[in-house]
């Protein structure tokens, strides 16, 4: 009896040990399956679908760690420092980053538009030409600066930070532009969304134009990947891109989900339904990007001096849409 009891104990211990090994093995497999992707993002309404990727990432077999930055050039600096795998930014930051040595590829376009020229209430500015003699606020290095300078050049207006030109540029952070317009420290601003919609809805700003009549057209916001992530972690990059397409499709197909997430999670109740509706009507979610669009944007940046690039990158060398096309095909997205 004693011998049988001892054998039973040994068998039980072996069974427990085997179960632990199996559980540990399965845990290791799960941990390996959910590899971490470090994502850099900005806090704007049209960047909401990019933020949403982290919410659905587990079912895509990955874990996404989102890091929020003040502007696109900060995302590029984090990529150069090796702190990110993927970044969401406007095209000009990606172009400047690539010119400055950031090892990145443009792999998708997640939103279009997203800019508006807004005059202060009572200014009676109804066209770009009427900016002559005015102080115009804009964020340095943003796509809004590229669009503003393209519009001023197209209207035959000169510009500078100092007085003496047709238009005096006042460089401010996105968050400070609305306050400056409200306080009448500037006469107009080229602003992003949803801040431009907020200025109009709160009554201290009026729309002059949506600046899409330059060679750039509607600027496309870019999703970039590091070359290392794209080349060396290909299976994870494929999972991330499918997750991006799925998140974007959710926001395009289900406006209520998009609104709830952006208003409650991204902005924590700081923007209204009208702010969201107006912002997204001017910056719809999308998937696509083309080398042609990036090349035109690069050429306009060179012409206007934005980014001060000594060697502008050639778009066809670093715009890679194969992962996007593969992801869209697998999810039956046109």
Quick summary:
The protein has 334 residues and is an alpha/beta fold. It has helices at 2-33, 48-56, 72-80, 91-99, 143-154, 174-182, 195-201, 227-232, 234-253, 255-266, 273-281, 291-304, 322-330, and strands at 35-42, 62-69, 86-89, 104-112, 115-120, 135-138, 159-160, 167-171, 188-192, 205-209, 220-226. The strands form two sheets. Strands 7-8-6-9-5-10 form a six-stranded mixed sheet, with helices on both faces.
Write the layout of secondary structure elements.
Blueprint: H1 2-33, E1 35-42, H2 48-56, E2 62-69, H3 72-80, E3 86-89, H4 91-99, E4 104-112, E5 115-120, E6 135-138, H5 143-154, E7 159-160, E8 167-171, H6 174-182, E9 188-192, H7 195-201, E10 205-209, E11 220-226, H8 227-232, H9 234-253, H10 255-266, H11 273-281, H12 291-304, H13 322-330
Parallel strand pairs: 1-2, 1-3, 6-8, 6-9, 7-8
Antiparallel strand pairs: 3-11, 4-11, 5-9, 5-10
Helix pairs in contact: 2-9, 2-10, 3-4, 5-12, 7-11, 9-10, 9-13
């Amino acid at each position: 009896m004693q011998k049988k009891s001892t054998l039973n104990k040994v068998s039980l211990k072996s069974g427990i040990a085997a179960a632990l090994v199996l559980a540990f093995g399965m845990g290791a497999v799960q941990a390996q399956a959910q590899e971490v992707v470090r994502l850099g993002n900005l806090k704007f309404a049209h960047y909401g679908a990019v933020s949403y990727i982290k919410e659905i990432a587990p079912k895509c077999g990955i874990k996404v760690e989102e890091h929020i930055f003040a502007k696109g050039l900060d995302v590029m600096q984090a990529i150069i420092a090796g702190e990110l795998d993927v970044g969401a930014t406007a095209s000009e930051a990606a172009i400047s980053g690539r010119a400055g040595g950031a090892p990145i590829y443009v792999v998708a376009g997640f939103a279009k538009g997203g800019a508006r020229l807004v005059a202060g209430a009572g200014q009676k500015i109804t066209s770009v030409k009427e900016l002559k003699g005015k102080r115009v606020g804009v964020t340095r290095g943003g796509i809004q600066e590229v669009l503003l300078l393209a519009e001023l050049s197209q209207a035959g207006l000169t510009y500078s930070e100092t007085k003496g030109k047709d238009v005096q540029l006042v460089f401010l952070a996105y968050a400070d532009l609305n306050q400056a317009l409200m306080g009448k420290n500037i006469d107009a601003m080229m602003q992003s969304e949803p801040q431009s919609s907020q200025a109009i809805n709160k009554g201290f700003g009026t729309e002059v134009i949506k600046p899409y009549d330059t060679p750039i057209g509607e600027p496309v916001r870019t999703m970039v990947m590091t070359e290392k992530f794209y080349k060396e972690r290909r299976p994870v990059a494929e999972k991330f891109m499918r997750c991006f397409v799925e998140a974007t499709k959710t926001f395009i197909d289900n406006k209520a989900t998009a609104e709830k997430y952006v208003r409650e999670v991204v902005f924590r109740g700081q923007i209204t339904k009208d702010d969201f509706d107006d912002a997204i009507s001017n910056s719809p979610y999308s998937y696509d990007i083309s080398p042609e669009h990036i090349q035109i944007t690069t050429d306009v940046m060179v012409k206007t001096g934005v980014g001060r690039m000594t060697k502008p990158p050639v778009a066809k060398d670093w715009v890679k849409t194969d992962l996007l096309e593969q992801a869209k095909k697998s999810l039956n997205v046109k």
